[in-house]
Amino acid sequence: MSDSDTERRQKQRIAGELEEPVREANHLARKLGLDPFPVKYWIIDYDEMNELIAYGGFQERYPHWRWGMAYDRQQKQTQFLGGKAFEIVNNDNPSHAFLQESNALADQKAVITHVEAHADFFKNNQWFGLFADDPNAAAMLSNHADAIEAFMDDPEVDREAVERWIDHVLCLEDCIDQHSPFSTVEGEGVERDLADIADQLDSLGLSDEVRRQVFDEEWVESQRPEEEAGSFPEEPELDVLAFLRRHGMAYDEDAERAVEFEDWQRETLELLRRESYYFAPQKMTKVMNEGWAAYWESMMMGEEGFAAADEFLHYADHQARVLNSPGFNPYKLGKELWEYIENATNRREVAERLLRVEGVTWRNFHERIDLDEVQTALEPDPALDRIAADRLDLLDADDPRVDAEELARARADDVDVNRYPWKVLTYEGLCERHYSLVKPQHRGFLKRLSQSDLERIARYMFDDARYADVEEALADVDRCAGWDRMREIRESHNDVTFLDEFLSQEFVDQNHYFTYEFTHSTRDYRATSTDVEDVKKKLMLQFTNFGKPTVVVEDGNYNNRNELLLSHQYNGVIVDARQAKQVLKRVFELWGRPVNLKTISKQLDDHDVEVARRRDREPVPEEVGLLIRYDGERITTEELPWEAVEHLAATDVDYDTKPDEWLA
What we know:
Elements: H1 3-31, E1 39-44, H2 46-54, H3 65-80, E2 87-89, E3 95-100, H4 105-124, H5 126-129, H6 137-153, H7 159-170, H8 193-203, H9 208-214, H10 217-222, H11 240-247, E4 250-252, E5 257-259, H12 263-284, H13 286-303, H14 312-323, H15 330-354, H16 365-368, H17 371-377, H18 382-385, H19 404-411, H20 427-433, H21 451-459, H22 470-475, H23 481-492, H24 495-502, H25 505-511, E6 515-519, E7 524-529, H26 532-541, E8 551-558, E9 563-568, H27 577-591, E10 595-603, H28 606-614, E11 622-630, E12 635-640, H29 642-645, H30 659-663
Protein name: AbrB family transcriptional regulator
Domain SpoVR protein-like N-terminal: 17-351, 475-547
Domain SpoVR-like C-terminal: 549-601
């Protein structure tokens, strides 16, 4: 038997083992209120997994050196740093998920439950809908790969020139309008009389010396029709790639001037721009999406026993490795914040019911209500909490918490209720079975209701229904409120709005978040604040524009010389000057003429730093305007008067923005 036959049989065996977990995980996900895309699972080996991770989760991408570099990094991470690839799933309909054949069955089950939650997020989060309501990403990326490969194979096109062109475009891959729906850039660019004049001069066969002496650059610029003079666009353009697609020109080194894009250049730019829009929602929702998947994976594997008894310790190790990996961890932050939202929603629901009990107000709440007794009363019905084949007689088929059809099948021994107890419950039954406020890890959450919390809740209660006693009020508590609210949030938010709206001081204190900064007084990093506003701003700076500087097109005819002016929308974090200069060199190749970057920098005087250090305080840097320019030969930097950059400066990092405003 050949190696390929052995490998195929191995994958078939693993696929056979996973048929039931795949089917039942989807069934359980839907019972829990999720609505995922259909998922196709693929069994792949170690090398194939590394290739897919390098390719961003797809089997075919355009030819470029970046994929080899990513593959090498991934391989070394697993080989030398102890990393382990569990899964990769893409946003597609159907979604495609890839399972590494060498992973244990417990790992595979964890991946499957994780993937089902991702597929639900892909389908229902509105930010993913900005690119396409029904994505067929695998086909799109495959077509892009074929198109760019064809350009490289064209005998009239230099293959290395195509790769260099891709390099130029990729330095701006995140300079798009991520909050707007994707739309194709139409047209072939604007007509340029300047280019026509240059072409006419070429046709005269004049020497370079004569052209420089008689037809200098200033004269050529003066021939531009007056109606083209002036700044454009009217408003700063966020989609830098689209602007370059419409108005850019390639720089011809031999002719030493700007020329119209070749068809392959224009098409490649647009294909890469489309891919940037496709991947943008994944970057914009990293914390939400990974936290969402980690939450429901934990629910299914741990609390619903999808991990068998002999697999549980292995799964616990699996989850610990994911949630406790060093550095910033979107899985951990996201899962904790989703749990906080669930608990806060459920707590508010309970408080609203209790505040309607006769004689109870927000002022006397803690005197009239025994929260220990409330906690006990909220425990799930034992018939729902401890389901087993020998306890089915405790379930009532007419109970809305019970799935009557599945209960009948279980009583007929057609359902393994000991293995899959959730099958005999409805969504309402599962809400009660997994009610968050009575879980051991959350039992103190209800007791943290403060007087100010109660006053705020009472202020916005518009339902005047009253209950005779606490028992009647608790019987009316909606156990599904937390999960219902989580799904609403999942639909409309991205990471910035998610953190802005739901990160609270209580959450920061409970989960021990803090900020740290480099301090000049001690010349090292120190914890600086546990205030929620500081933590929030620090976190959101990592997610605004994917954590990269926001750069927009301010003027496509800067100083009326057809130069490009880019502006850095300063948020208190300065750009890396070395990288900025390298990017300008790349952009020059896409504009064909000098390019400029207007930004704000911070300057510290060495004397002020030393004085501040001696006084054990931080020096206050001076903010200055800078213009960095590249003309095709050299980089220059000049200071600008403050009024020239004042419009770029943020007086504060303002994230008081709601999802509807972002989606408008």
